Amino acid sequence: MIMEYKCYFMTAKGEIWDYVMSRAPALQKLVNDFWDMTLWDYANLRYSFSGSLNEMRRVEFLKYTWDYIEKKHWKTIRENAIQSLMSNYCVSTADHHGPIGHPFFFQSAVLRWLTRPWEAIVNLCTSHVSLGNSSYPRGFVVHNKREPYLWLPFFSAKERMSPVFGHAGFKKKDVEKCLSVLSKHQSLFENSDYHSIKSWLQKNALSELILWKETYSEQITTLNELLWNDIFGANLPPLITLDGEKIVSELLCQHLKKETSLLKNIMTELSWQEEIENYFDGVSCCFEKKNRNWTYLFWHINADGERRALWRNNNTLNSEDATISVSLNAEALHKALKNGELIPSGLLMYTTLACYYGLTCFGGFAQGTYLPRIFAAYEKLAHKMWESVQIQTSILCEDMVLMRNEKGGIITALDMLLAKEECGIEKLLRNAKSTTLSDSIYMMLPEIARCL
Fold first, then answer.
1. Residues 334, 257: contact at Cβ < 8 Å?
2. Which of 40, 312, 395, 431 has its CA 20 to 30 A from that of 279?
3. Per-residue pLDDT averaged across 419-439, rounded?
4. pTM here?
5. Helix residue spans in 35-105 (DSSP H)
6. What gap in Å lies between CA 234 and CA 242, rounded to an integer?
7. Mean pLDDT in the chain?
């Protein structure tokens, strides 16, 4: 019966199903292995750490992460994040750093909370994405009566090419512009919903707690925690969305001060660079030499927030037009990282978090495909230093959907804030226990196809 349903289900998708599955092999494997399993059962099976650990490295990671959070965020965020990582050494590394709400990310966090309600949900979010990314990190997303979504931006379209990383925090005038967009579209909402959104933004985005923070990334972390708590209640485990590249920058700075380490050699050892280029070339989110896609080891970001790709020329990293040059030595890289002039690439993000420190990284259909390739490349480098490798499995956790509105739209965080009486724990649990993984992926097909 299951196989008959599966055949019908796949035929009903037609070309979009075939297209997505052909371009996302990790998703295809997920479907084959867990087709009729409910989201609840899948999450209980997969959403916990079950591998082996290098304990010294785990302790080192927790210490450096504690130090970073202590400098940037309040005490409860630091303590909740570290306690969660101590009990379950897992993070999501697929989210884009922005206000929670996009279908790819928000509901996946809800599912993690439902199945492990005793620990904080920790996400090390990607912040090198531009403000204009399709996941809309420059503001909030909410459904309304007539349009699929209303976008509420904190920054103008002129800044859409700037990355989230290092971007200055929004000011009072930016929030007022966001509120003016909402006011302009007031007729799209029920009167009570309009005033609820307006009131929440005024109370939180205009609070001194948010406005005094230096960077947008820091504001996002706090805003997301506040919104999560307002939806689900402060007594439930918090959602902690941290800037992944900032944390990795801190970790890499520590390695650059060491006499030797595998990560330091990846960044500075000239004799390793040709092998790195061979092993990682063409791996998504790392770099592609022929077509000059992505970047080599680091992105450069200037004082105006413009991000530039860098490419190796002997022992230096240069921009395409050679106006930027950074030496591949410990002193120069340490200084540039501390000054916020370099953003770690996907290569350094995943070799640091997943490969060296052994974190189990939750991700989506894309990460599930490229992370195993990064593991394989890293393993070859590790053998050069006679290091044993304890690589954790990449778990597909994102892209899971269990809540839609009456028109079939995937519910965002602001949607749930407006309808929290209708989206209580009982209904969320009921949906998680009745929605199969295949049904969930079906809901996400248009979003996934758009990204392939």
1. yes
2. 395
3. 88
4. 0.91
5. 39-46, 55-72, 75-87
6. 19
7. 89
